[in-house]
Structure formats: structure tokens, C-alpha cells
Design goal:
Pfam families: Acetyltransf_1. GO terms for molecular function: acyltransferase activity, transferring groups other than amino-acyl groups. InterPro entries: Acyl_CoA_acyltransferase, GNAT_dom. The chain has about 160 residues and is an alpha+beta fold. The chain has four helices and seven strands, in the order E-H-H-E-E-E-H-E-H-E-E. Strand 4, helix 3 and strand 5 form a beta-alpha-beta unit. The longest helix has 15 residues.
Length: about 160
């Protein structure tokens, strides 16, 4: 059973470790992403996820095993999927869809989910998944090199 759980501050190093796989996958689409001198990717600054009430970090879990993560920004107006990742061996099996739905249900209201233009697999995943769970009640725009889907949780089927 897939579920989400908040990442604790004490687990920040674990999240950084998992994010190395995400950054590696993303390097296919952004040529500027390079290894640092210690052969790791530059870590994200995650401080806002422990310091600001509007930022939330989650592990995506399959029973007790961590299989991905999500970073969310949420305020009174809109929820935004900042980053979302499921390990390759768990992709295409419905785990990402289940985790995303859990996240959408955890934060009521409007949502924005975006993908860079070059990341066709992410566009296909999000577009198809959101159309499916909202019965097509979503809008999509292209702006500044990104596709952005917007919907409201009241449309979740």
C-alpha cells in the first residue's frame, strides 16, 4: 500500500540522498546539471521545508520502504507541486498516481503542477493522471518553457 509521510528535519540527509537520483534523472533534460567535485550533485536548499509553514516535504512509501518524495508549497490561494519523484523500479505501476492523489487530498483547494518542456514523460504522466482523477476538469497552459496543469480538489473523482 502506497502512502505519504512528512519528512522530519532529522531525515533531511535521507531526503538529500534520495534527491541525488532525482537530479541524475533530471540531468537528461537540463544540460547545466553537472556533478560537483565530490561526484555528487549540488543539493537543494531545503531549509524552507523546516522553517516555513507553507512548505512541506513528504516521503512516498510502499509499506515501510521509501520509494520517492514530494515537495509542496501551499498557501491560502494555491497548492503547488514543486518536485515529485518515484524511483524508476516503481514507475509505471500506479504508485506515483496513488501518492499524488494522497497529496492532492491532503491539501484542499486549487493545485498547480508543472513540467519543463523537454520532460515528455512527466508531461504524459501528470496530464493523463490529472485528467483521469478529475474527469477532465483541469486547465493546461504553456508558459515560459513549462506546461502547467491547474485543477481544484473538488473535481477529484
Amino acid at each position: 500500500m502506497v502512502h505519504i509521510r512528512e519528512v522530519k528535519k532529522s531525515e533531511e540527509a535521507l531526503l538529500h540522498n534520495l534527491m541525488q537520483f532525482y537530479i541524475y534523472e533530471f540531468s537528461k533534460y537540463i544540460s547545466k546539471i553537472k556533478l560537483e567535485s565530490d561526484c555528487t550533485y549540488k543539493p537543494f536548499d531545503l531549509s524552507q521545508y523546516w522553517e516555513e509553514e507553507t512548505h512541506h516535504a513528504y516521503f512516498i512509501c510502499m509499506e515501510a520502504e521509501v520509494i520517492g518524495f514530494a515537495l509542496i508549497e501551499s498557501d491560502e490561494k494555491i497548492n503547488t507541486m514543486i518536485e515529485f519523484f518515484v524511483l524508476a523500479s516503481y514507475q509505471g505501476k500506479g504508485f506515483g498516481k496513488a501518492a499524488a492523489r494522497n497529496l492532492f487530498e491532503a491539501f484542499d483547494g486549487y493545485w498547480n503542477v508543472s513540467q519543463i518542456e523537454k520532460n515528455q514523460p512527466a508531461q504524459d504522466f501528470w496530464r493523463n493522471m490529472i485528467i483521469d482523477i478529475t474527469n477532465g476538469e483541469m486547465e493546461e497552459v504553456y508558459c515560459k518553457g513549462k506546461y502547467i496543469q491547474t485543477f481544484h480538489t473538488s473535481t477529484l473523482s
